[in-house]
Amino acid sequence: MRSAVLRSVQWWAGPLLLAGAALACDAAERRIAFAVWTTGPVDEAAHLAMAALGLLVLIRFIDAPRRFYVAALIASVAIDLDHIPLYLRLLGDSAQRPITHSLSTAAVFVAAAAAGRRHRAVLAGVATGLVLHFARDIAEGYPGVRVFWPLQDTSWMVSYRWFLGLIVVLMVARLVLVRAGLPHTRIPVFRTPSQPGSVPRFPDGPATSGDHGTGDVAHPSFQRCS
After folding, report:
1. What is the pLDDT of residues 96-148, one digit of tens each?
2. How far apart are CA 43 and CA 98, in angstroms?
3. 180-219 pLDDT, tens per residue?
4. Which residues lie across from 62 on neighbouring strands?
5. Do residues 40 and 83 make contact, with C-beta atoms less than 8 angstroms apart?
6. Which of 54, 132, 162, 168 could disulfide-pair with 158, CB 3.0 to 4.6 Å?
7. Rounded to whole angstroms, how far apart are CA atoms 214 and 203?
8. How far apart are CA 31 and CA 27, in angstroms?
9. What's the CA gap between 19 and 12, in Å, rounded?
10. Are 223 and 201 in contact (CB under 8 A)?
């Protein structure tokens, strides 16, 4: 009974907490005077929360190994290491985000994943995390993101409503999909569905009378935030 109650709470509490954390950290960053050691931590926390929320939606559609999701989460914050040469005035224009903050970087990892099989899940996860990172960066205001570099050197910016709307859409999508039990099957990617270490099909969701036999099934890597 305790396990069933816990699962009933987890299926909706995780998305709500992640959405709240993303919005709260983003709001805090906008109110703090910029400095690497002050705005940096809350900025990365907002990126991480948003990426986790996006992956909770994606996990409803694809059946991927854990390393895909771990790589995506790491990449969603690690890409900001490319700012270090700018802060040290060693490379690039400090008034612009680095050129590695563009879809061309994600495309490199997609191409690498397509070309090789050994680390395909990790490489695809990195590309996914980068896209989720850039989706928030374009809503942070100046200097924007040179999304289509090198094809276009223009910086792209959208209003805060883009970020707010994105968080709300991802949160609602996750809740609705889990509540409705949709989709009924997921697409296996990067491995065969029966391979050891696979993510269980749909261990999360509202507890039902049929959960008594499966209430103790281990959740995938997002158990603590789904």
Report:
1. 899 999 999 999 999 999 998 889 999 999 999 999 999 999 999 888 999 99
2. 17
3. 999 999 999 986 544 444 444 454 555 444 444 433 333 4
4. 187
5. no
6. 162
7. 8
8. 7
9. 11
10. no
Helices then strands, counting H and E runs in the chain, come out as 7, 2
Residue 85 host element (H or E):
helix 84-87
Residues 48-70: tens digit of each pLDDT = 999 999 999 999 999 999 999 99
The position carrying tokens 């709300």 is 168
Is 218 exposed, middle or buried (CB count within 10 Å of its CB: 0-12, 13-18, 19+)?
Answer: exposed
In three-state secondary structure terms, 201 is coil
Report whether 197 contacts 65 (CB < 8 A).
yes
State the burial class of residue 89 (Cβ atoms within 10 Å of its Cβ: 0-12, 13-18, 19+): exposed
Sequence-distant (≥ 6) Cβ neighbours of residue 98 within 8 angstroms: 82, 83, 85, 86, 92
Where residue 35 falls among pLDDT bands split at 50, 70, 90? confident
Report residue 82 as tokens.
């490319």
